[in-house]
Amino acid sequence: MELKGKTILITGGASGIGLEAAKQLLEIGAKVIITGRNQDKLDVAKSKYPKLTAIKSDLANAEDAAILFEKIKELGGVDIIYNNAGVLVPPSNLGISSNQHAEGAAYEMEVNYLAVIRINNIFMDMLKSRKEAAIINTTSILSMVPSLIEATYSSSKTALAFYTVSLREHLRIIGSSVKVFELIPPLVATEMTAERNDKKISVEDMVKGLIKGLQGNNETIRVGDSKIFDSIRRFFPKLAFKIINPKKSEYYLK
């Protein structure tokens, strides 16, 4: 897929993977719009990369998503939606039967799953009108094997993985040329994973893998350890479960 000259919307683009993606996509000649909930972070990103267009928006809010669409429409529209935004609610002190646990799960599902469907639906007609358009949904290595300490996060990403496959096939059946990519990252060194001591991939390498996959039209883009982990999961499921859930982990819930 050609990325140069494309206009790309990145959700959660003010920091971490999203901001690094914006940087690398700008470098190869794409036009990039980032969105996020924190205006200060958006301002910092804009000052760092002046070519960015930054729009404050909380995509978990239906009204915000609709307003974002109108603003982008005024700017000429987009060719690619990169659904990068995601949240993980730390489970450490919540307890699996607490109200807080249920509220955290609802929030994860809203941001990680329902907001993606919402934004894709709002922009779908726009994408269909483009010569070459795409949607990128970010799932997780935890959509393959669940984490006991991140069970609801794992569930939200599994839901997104199934939705991504369904959306791709639906668009094929109706004859649409809109491509649907699934990005499956391993553990990435971001603010979200700062307290984890596990092996992590850098955001730079993560984005390089994403761009290589897009340019190669790989519908499922596995980066770093998620490549080999997929084989482990299929042939040695018990080992895969132990890798994700080591009992010696300081995060393991007893």
Rg calc:
18 Å
Task: Give the SSE string.
Answer: EHEHEHEHEHEHEHH
Report the β-strand fraction as a percent range.
5-15%
Q: Please list the strands of the largest sheet in the order they lie side by side.
A: 3-2-1-4-5-6-7
Q: How would you classify the helix and strand content by structural class?
A: alpha/beta
Average predicted confidence as pLDDT: 91
Approximate shape: globular
What is the count of DSSP helices, taking H or I runs of 4+ residues?
A: 8
Q: Helix content range of the residues, please?
A: 40-55%
CATH superfamily: NAD(P)-binding Rossmann-like Domain
Indicate the CATH class: Alpha Beta
State the domain count: 1
- The CATH architecture classification is 3-Layer(aba) Sandwich
Q: Measure the end-to-end span.
A: 47 Å
The CATH topology name reads Rossmann fold
Descriptive report:
This is SDR family NAD(P)-dependent oxidoreductase. Belongs to the short-chain dehydrogenases/reductases (SDR) family. One of its GO terms (molecular function) is oxidoreductase activity. This protein is 47% helix and 13% strand. It has 254 residues and is α/β, with parallel strands linked by helices. The protein has a single domain, classed as 3-Layer(aba) Sandwich (Rossmann fold), CATH 3.40.50.720. The chain has a seven-stranded parallel beta sheet with strand order 3-2-1-4-5-6-7, with helices on both faces. The termini are far apart.
